[in-house]
Fold this sequence. Notes:
10 helices; alpha/beta; globular; Glucose Oxidase, domain 1; single chain; nine-stranded mixed beta sheet
Amino acid sequence: xxxxxxxxxxLAIGIAAGIAAADTSQPQTALPASAGRAPxxxxxxxxxxxxxxxxxxxxxxxxxxxxNLITSAKRKQALSTAKTGESVSLAHxxxxxxxxxxGSPFEHTMNRGFTTDTYRVSYHGYAHSHIDALCHxxxxxxxxxxxxxxxxxxxxxxxxxxxxxxxxxxxTRAILVDIPRLKGVAYLExxxxxxxxxxxxxxxxxxxxxxxxxxxxxRTGRWARRAxxxxxxxxxxxxxxxxxxxxxxxxxxxxxVGSDDAQDVVPAMVEGVNLPVHTLLxxxxxxxxxxxxxxxxxxxxxxxxxRWEFMLTVAPVPVTGGTGFPVNALATF
Length: 333
């Protein structure tokens, strides 16, 4: 376990112990579940960023980040999980109507003769299923691996860390982490944070153990909730990972992280920091993110088969300098 993991988890444990040992002779006010969990503010976030950082881990010129953890042996393991051959898409069909969670609708225009067409999409945000390249986020004017942002993010595209680095695709074992199923609900309410104890409780319930090179896909039930009550401003209120989970994700060697929204719990519970999980995973650890995946069908399939691991394949179009790409990721059981 890294120095960061020990220190960050130790800090949280120490504060929690202090709360437990506090004077109980006075009336007690219930504390939120996030109380005492680092990072709580910008200073603790900065400390965590540098302690979990993978900068230089695979060489000073590395542009793959945690994808380096997906070895040939890991791909063979992924292949072995495809037992029935059932294939399930993780992509939500493109949303063409403007809504609270879709400020940039997908545009589909038929060309003359109606035998060709044109697509237009601004895919980053909270509507369209996509993968983030490592040049998509930075911290203090540096991208993953310490490259100066000014040299990476240019008007002609990303000079480094672009989506073309994933031209050979991603094939690995994926674990579906279905927190609504764990809690016995149809979906998590917006603002619900997922903590390390939730991840470990899911491992126990599902009979799986997240290990090096794995992808994890967090189901919050966002699309199930949207189907029932309609769209809402996901960017202002969403269920997702609390930033305190990131040292655990690094310790387990997670190579790729996805969710049915944008990973972060919002509000983030880290004072002064916007999207701390996004920032830590992309800019510090070098983890590509799969945002806005539709995990309803894969959750139903996993429940029917009682199997929460499967082969995941992702193959974004290698746009030179691209900050990501819309994708149709596939789960094969």
